[in-house]
Amino acid sequence: MMKFDHLALPVSNLDRSREWYIATLGLKVEFEIPARHAVALQDGEGFAIFLEERPVVPNGIALWFQVDDVDRTFTEWTARGVAFAHGPQKNFWGYGPELTDPDGYIVRLWDERTMKEK
């Protein structure tokens, strides 16, 4: 058995990114490493993203998060003030909305039902 469970993501401002991933996506702090300017944030299924402050942040990174219902999540998050690049729509990767984190990384939301239907 092999399971992908951690991802390192360089960020330009750790505090700003930490707050965005917690407030916007609802990730929880697993642990922090102040000496490395890093924090591990975990989703509800045990996957962790290590945010580590770096002077240079690469482009072209996209993250996909599976949710229960794309349309409902989009409506709820929009009501909370989350700014999306676009709402749920058919894309090359499937169906869902996109938003960007503070460093410009693309965050895509999807669900199993609409991926099959749309």
From TrEMBL:
InterPro entries per record: Glyas_Bleomycin-R_OHBP_Dase, Glyas_Fos-R_dOase_dom, VOC_core
Signal peptide: none
Occurrences of domain VOC (ranges): 3-112
Protein name, as recorded: VOC domain-containing protein
Organism for this UniProt entry: Reyranella soli
